[in-house]
Amino acid sequence: MEPFTRADRLITGWLTLTKLETGCYHRQMVGTDRRPLTQDSKAPAKVVSTWSGQAREDAVQRMFTSIAGVYDLNNTLLSFGLHYHWKKITASFITPVGRGTALDVGSGTADLALLLESRMGPKGRVIASDLNYAMLAEGLKKIGGKGLTDKITCLQASAEHLGFGDNTFDAVTTGFCMRNVGDLPGAVREIRRVMKPGGRFVCLEFSRPVFGWLRTLYDWYSFKLLPWIGTIVARDHTGVYEYLPASIRAFPDQERLCQVLRDAGFRQVSYKNLSGGIVAIHVATK
Fold first, then answer.
1. What is the dotted CATH code of the domain comprising 5-21+43-285?
2. Given 20, 48, 246, 255, which residue has the most CB atoms within 10 angstroms?
């Protein structure tokens, strides 16, 4: 079987960008056992970082939908342009293959998916998946602008319900996604399930700065300056820029995320700190 045949079969007949109204919204991908919200949807945004399950998922989706159109601009401003550098390093951890398939989970506006494309070979395929339709729509514009719609496919999917068969992908990446999922261990297990044996998972995520002085400075920036700048630029009233630093604080640090990956069955787990540990790249093998 050719490396990309199974993934091609899965997406045959689907639109490039799925949406519920089109009938292409894959039921297995978003889960069919969704229950009513139990938490208050009007709770302060930073409280959302302490939630789990569907309540967290729904609240996060509302917030990211509100900023989708200015997401890339805000990332550039708030990271001083560093997010491009971090993503390029992340993609470099994926071994180039001649005719491969890669999945970028929580792809958002598709920056990582675009970087992965060249590493899958001239006849390879990349799937950019995200639960948020508005974010994927922005990503699809960028993919189309580079003439890569025949190589990169956007699919609306939950990280906990990817909907692909076992052992489908040569590589899986995530960039600033995992701290937003409702069930982190479940999402990690699902990612491992769809990977081929020997495949590599690379996760880029905010983490814990390694120096005390940097943690103090970073906390001031994250909880004081970032919400103010982000809100001014995005004109957002959902509180997403209060949620983001709170979600970083609540997310497992470098060593604890290594343990989450090991508990899911990954091996050869390691990480590389960037910018003093403000972000970390975790690498693991199935």
1. 3.40.50.150
2. 48
Sheet holding 152-156, edge to edge: 152-156, 125-130, 101-105, 169-175, 195-206, 279-285, 267-274
- Rounded CA separation 104/107 (Å): 5
- pLDDT single digits (tens) 80-116: 999 999 999 999 999 999 999 999 999 999 999 999 9
Residue 40 makes CB contacts below 8 A (sequence gap 6+) with none
Q: Give this prediction's pTM.
A: 0.83
Tens-digit pLDDT profile for residues 194-231: 999 999 999 999 999 999 999 999 999 988 888 887 77
Interhelix angle 184-194/254-263, nearest 10 degrees: 60
Residue spans of alpha helices (H) in the chain: 5-11, 27-30, 53-67, 71-78, 82-92, 111-117, 133-145, 184-194, 212-220, 226-234, 240-250, 254-263
Answer for the pair 45, 238: CB distance below 8 angstroms, yes or no.
yes
Q: What residues have CB less than 8 Å from 142, skipping those under 6 apart?
A: 109, 110, 111, 114
Give tens-digit pLDDT for 138-156.
999 999 999 999 999 999 9
